[in-house]
Amino acid sequence: MTDVNEQPDGDGDGGGSRESMLSRMTSILDAFVDRGDHLRLDDIVNATGLPRSTSHRILDQLVRLAWLQHSADGYALGRRALQLGGAPGGLGGHEDLRGAAVPVLQELHARTGQLVQLGILDFAEVVYLDTVGYGQRLPAEPRVGGRVPAHCVALGKAMLAWLAPEEIDALLYEGLKARTRTTITDLSMMHVELRRIRSRHGIAFEHDENVPGVSSVGAAVQCPDGVTAGIALAGATADLSLERWVPVILDAARRISSSLCPDSPPDDMPSAAWSDGMMSTVFALTDDDAIM
């Protein structure tokens, strides 16, 4: 009597049981030695010894289930594989980042008197690594280690803005849940918002989008290999003039970037030079934001 879990494979590669399928899927995932590997079909066939047709079929299934992703560069680890493999989601492993950021955050708080936040992007969420200052007048204040959807806070949007559109779609595939009546919940509108952030040289704003009565302005901390973190100033909407702090928040982000990546050529780092024309652009786009 045939086991109900066994199915004909059709590829001549021996056995079709669930255990065999799991073994073959594992061998394919094991071919990705480093998190950033991009492999083509022939690379995977050579690494696993599986027939080409079997490899192609399993790769399609792994892409559909988000274990892998596929692009013009080949196959790469997907959302689920990266999460299980230790994508940054906790507070450990960020000593260099926090060491570079804390002095700048403290100076930023002393200069502005506002709550200063440092966070990283963990898939579609922001994880707060540090906060400086106390928002006694704020309805809510994030705790270190706390999480919030990236699409509804300034430092989250600042980090999302520098990702590729297809990566943003993959991160936000489950939808944008409303936290308040002003939260952006439409993916196409979020892409518009992220384009506007890029046009403002990376400055992101949020007005009551996460917690009613709280607004923030943020920027991404970037190194040549991509976005590392985000920082933000947050305060009571009624009291906080976000535009006033645009130059200092961008300068703070660049100083942290320079500390983290001291050997990077200046041309590879985000610019912190603000001309009158750039400021006028930011203010004009901010006025447009107010009517969205």
TrEMBL record:
Origin superkingdom: Bacteria
Domain IclR-ED as annotated: residue spans: 80-262
Example of a GO MF term: DNA binding
Composition bias, Acidic residues: 1-12
Record keyword Phosphoprotein present: no
Pfam families, per database record: HTH_IclR (PF09339), IclR_C (PF01614)
Keyword Transcription regulation part of the UniProt annotation: yes
Domain spans labelled HTH iclR-type: 19-79
Residue numbers spanned by region Disordered: 1-20
Biological-process GO terms, alphabetical: negative regulation of DNA-templated transcription
Keywords for this protein: DNA-binding, Transcription, Transcription regulation
Record's protein name: IclR family transcriptional regulator
Organism, scientific name: Nocardioides albidus
